[in-house]
């Protein structure tokens, strides 16, 4: 079996040093669509070094390394075809605000392996800390088609009841034709997002946008729309990737706000509101 669950779970955690600076932060922000309009004071917080703050979803690319999906596939007990792999979901927990520049230790391990019948799900957990203590924890849910069925634990359900009533806010965010090409410069070089031939092999009509790009674009919309642009108010952010986005499409982002959290649903406007992100929740102060 290409996935040996026992071996993957028993493997020693892998630690490495990561570093990032303001240029990495600015590139990430541009990759998720920041800077439009370029002179808007609210956008300059994402693009101008003298005013820079860090959107928490930057944690998924900090250090300019591979995201949890890619690093998870290199762990002991995991030997799968990249064309069968999809990013199933992402959960980010912030322990304190992310500095504009930093050096930290990232420790990664397979935290869970679930048997969904026709697929397997790996949970790749990455914990990051610097000299002052923990910074963030990332959980990437890696969906591998055709690798289930060995009789393992199906794992918990991540499905949430749909939000009640009409959304408090709805915004639309266009995705540029070159958005995936720009976003991949932050470290995710999966050819699925750039190579038309590879995309067809994986079953898509053309290259798709990174799920984590949609993830970042959505968090920015919530921060800017409901949290007064204050990135330090975000405590955690979780989503399930429910569908693909093609560069050139428009995201419709619906938000239902409560006191300490916001439920979010994201769809592709041009495809009759096809779901893109589901079971999405931002916890905040």
List keywords for this structure.
285 residues, alpha+beta, 7 helices
Describe the structure in your own words.
The chain has 285 residues and is an alpha+beta fold. It has seven helices and ten strands. The protein has helices spanning 5-10, 22-31, 41-47, 68-72, 179-183, 196-201, 211-226; strands at 14-20, 85-94, 102-115, 119-130, 133-145, 169-174, 234-241, 250-257, 261-268, 274-284. Strands 1-3-4-5-2-7-10-9-8-6 form a ten-stranded antiparallel β-sheet. A hairpin with a 3-residue loop joins strand 3 (102-115) and strand 4. It is globular and about 55 Å long. The chain starts with a helix and ends with a strand.
Largest sheet: 10 strands, antiparallel
The averaged pLDDT comes out at 93
Q: In angstroms, what is the radius of gyration?
A: 18 Å
What's the number of extended β-strand segments? Answer: 10
Strand proportion, as a percent range, falls in 25-35%
- Uncertain segments are none
What's the order of the H and E elements? HEHHHEEEEEHHHEEEE
Taking the alpha carbons of the first and last residues, their distance comes to 45 Å
Number of helices: 7
């Amino acid at each position: 079996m290409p996935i040996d669950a026992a071996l993957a779970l028993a493997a020693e955690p892998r630690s490495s040093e990561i570093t990032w600076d303001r240029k990495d932060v600015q590139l990430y922000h541009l990759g998720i669509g920041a800077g439009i309009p370029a002179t808007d004071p609210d956008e300059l917080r994402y693009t101008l070094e003298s005013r820079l703050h860090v959107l928490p979803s930057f944690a998924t690319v900090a250090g300019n390394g591979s995201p949890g999906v890619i690093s998870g596939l290199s762990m002991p007990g995991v030997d799968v075809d990249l064309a069968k792999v999809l990013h199933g979901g992402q959960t980010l927990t912030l322990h304190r605000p992310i500095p504009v520049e930093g050096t930290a230790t990232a420790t990664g391990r397979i935290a869970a392996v679930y048997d969904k019948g026709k697929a397997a799900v790996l949970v790749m957990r990455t914990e990051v800390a610097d000299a002052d203590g923990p910074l963030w924890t990332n959980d990437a849910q890696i969906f591998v088609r055709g690798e289930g069925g060995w009789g393992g634990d199906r794992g918990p359900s991540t499905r949430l009841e749909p939000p009640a009533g009409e959304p408090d806010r709805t915004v639309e965010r266009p995705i540029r034709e070159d958005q995936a090409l720009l976003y991949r410069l932050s470290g995710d070089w999966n050819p699925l997002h750039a190579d038309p031939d590879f995309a067809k092999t994986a079953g898509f009509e053309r290259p798709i946008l990174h799920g984590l790009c949609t993830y970042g674009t959505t968090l920015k919309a919530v921060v800017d729309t409901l949290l007064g642009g204050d990135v330090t108010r975000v405590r955690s952010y979780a989503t399930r990737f429910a569908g693909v986005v093609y560069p050139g499409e428009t995201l419709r982002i619906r938000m239902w706000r409560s006191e300490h959290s916001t439920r979010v649903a994201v769809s592709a406007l041009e495809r009759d509101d096809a779901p893109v992100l589901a079971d999405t929740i931002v916890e905040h102060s």
